[in-house]
Design a protein that fits this description.
The protein is an all-alpha fold and 51 residues long.
């Protein structure tokens, strides 16, 4: 009975770790978009730096 409890806890821990990985990935993608898009726009419309 104790071993099943341990397995259940381990599975729960693994699921939370995967959730953290997914959340971190989504956050990194959002941060990447927020950083890259303005840079691309600034490069594309380069004359915005000196109007």
């Amino acid at each position: 009975m104790g071993s099943t409890e341990n397995a259940l806890k381990e599975r729960e821990r693994q699921r939370s770790r995967e959730m953290w990985k997914a959340a971190l990935g989504a956050f990194l993608i959002m941060a990447f978009i927020y950083v890259v898009i303005p840079v691309i726009l600034i490069i594309y419309f380069g004359d915005l730096k000196n109007p």
